Recover the amino acids of this structure.
C-alpha cells in the first residue's frame, strides 16, 4: 500500500483473490525471505506493513519476483495449450531447472484457480490440467485479452497459435 499504510490479512486476500489462509501463508513466506530481500514485514494492530531496509537488495528481490510471475503465467498458458506433460518438458521449454518449474507450479495453479482449473500431479507420470472445456477457453481468453477485448501487449496468442490451439481443442472434442 502507500507509504505508512497497512493492510489486514483479509484485505490482502481480497486484493489478490486468495483465501485468508493463503494470504497468511504468503506473509509468512515473505517474512522468511525478508532479510535476504532487503525488507521487513511488520505486524501492527491495523494489519501488516512493508518497510524497505536495503533498497538495492529489495530492487533485486522484487525483480526476481516479477520474473517468477511471468514464468508462472507462461507455465499456465503451456498447460492450457498442452493439457498434460512432464515437468522436464516444461523446464526444457522455458530453459529453467526442474526445481524452478516445480516451485512455480503452485503460482501457475493460482492463476488457473479462478476459472475452476487445477493442475494435478501424478508421480512418475507427469502433470495434467483438470477442468472443463469452457473454463479452459475462458481462461485462455482472460490471459490474452484485457477487459475491453484488446490483445494484451504481452499476449501469448497470435493468429497462428490460436489456430493451432483451436485445431487441438476440436480434435479432442471428436
Amino acid at each position: 500500500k502507500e507509504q505508512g499504510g497497512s493492510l489486514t490479512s483479509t484485505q490482502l486476500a481480497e486484493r489478490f483473490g486468495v483465501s485468508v489462509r493463503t494470504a497468511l501463508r504468503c506473509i509468512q513466506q515473505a517474512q522468511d525471505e525478508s532479510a535476504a530481500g532487503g525488507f521487513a514485514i511488520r505486524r501492527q494492530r491495523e494489519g501488516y506493513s512493508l518497510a524497505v531496509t536495503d533498497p538495492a537488495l529489495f530492487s533485486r528481490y522484487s525483480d526476481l519476483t516479477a520474473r517468477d510471475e511471468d514464468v508462472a503465467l507462461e507455465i499456465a498458458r503451456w498447460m492450457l495449450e498442452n493439457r498434460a506433460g512432464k515437468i522436464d518438458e516444461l523446464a526444457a521449454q522455458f530453459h529453467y531447472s526442474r526445481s524452478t518449474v516445480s516451485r512455480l507450479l503452485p503460482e501457475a495453479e493460482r492463476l488457473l484457480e479462478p476459472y475452476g482449473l487445477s493442475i494435478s500431479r501424478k508421480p512418475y507420470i507427469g502433470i495434467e490440467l483438470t477442468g472443463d472445456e469452457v473454463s479452459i477457453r475462458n481462461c485462455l481468453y482472460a490471459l490474452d485479452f484485457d477487459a475491453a477485448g484488446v490483445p494484451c501487449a504481452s499476449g501469448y496468442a497470435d493468429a497462428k497459435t490460436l489456430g493451432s490451439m483451436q485445431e487441438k481443442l476440436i480434435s479432442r472434442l471428436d
